[in-house]
């Protein structure tokens, strides 16, 4: 499975935008880029996914590099409830989600 | 709409025993996946079932098995428990299986997990 690389941790202030990077240099042409997050003591929660174009939904935006070797999850205004571990995952033709270590996001009030 | 439910939420077993965990997907969802989460290895995919058939399998020994019933409910079984099997076992469901781009096919909904402790 193609691997992803994320920073171990990031910190943000409440109400400020957060940009969470992910490198996936070995991505194949058919791999989708998924983001999930896991709040403390909960199961992971879907955030967003994309293939080539940038994507927006009510939770976040996903910016995908033109060569698809990296992507950035954008939280437009971080809240305390956004504090979680964020996982960037590549999904191939099967539906096996391979989670990495993720980025622990801390949001300061 | 009720979310994914898992029972039991907590379980304590001893080495050598076997355990069965249960997962009820969101109503209408036909795909169920299982994951193991440990502090050292993170989240690891176990297997996925769709329409009572195993579609994908992770790299776990044969002691880990599962099945899915006609109502989409799924069970996971671990035999001959080892200390290293202590983990949070998560179940996730999604509407369908396939490679369509849409969120309908790609969004997985996770349950709260079953915390298994092996003594």
Relative helix content of chain A: under 10%
Quickly count the helices of chain B. Answer: 1
Task: List segments of chain A where confidence is low: pLDDT < 50 over at least 5 consecutive residues.
Answer: none
* Structure annotation, total helices of chain A: 0
Shape designation of chain A:
globular
The chain-level structural class of chain A is mainly beta
Low-confidence stretches of chain B: none
Which structural class fits the helix and strand makeup of chain B?
Answer: mainly beta
Say how many strands of chain A there are.
Answer: 9
Radius of gyration of chain A: 13 Å
| Order of SSEs of chain A | EEEEEEEEE
Helical fraction of chain B equals under 10%
Q: Brief description of this entry?
A:
Chain A is an all-beta fold. Chain A has no helices and 9 strands. Chain A has strands at residues 9-13, 18-23, 32-38, 45-50, 55-56, 61-64, 70-75, 84-91, 103-108.
Tell me about this structure.
The complex is a heterodimer of chains A (109) and B (119). The termini of chain A are far apart. Chain A is built from no helices and nine strands. Helices cover 0% and strands 46% of the residues of chain A. By secondary structure, chain A is mainly beta. With 119 residues, chain B is mainly β. Helices cover 3% and strands 50% of the residues of chain B. In chain B, strands 2, 4, 5, 6, 9, 10 and 11 form a seven-stranded mixed sheet that branches. A four-stranded antiparallel sheet of chain B has the order 1-3-8-7, with no helix packed on it. Chain B starts with a strand and ends with a strand. The chains are: A mainly beta (109), B mainly beta (119). Chains A and B meet through strand 3 and strand 4 of A and strand 4, strand 5, strand 9 and strand 10 of B.
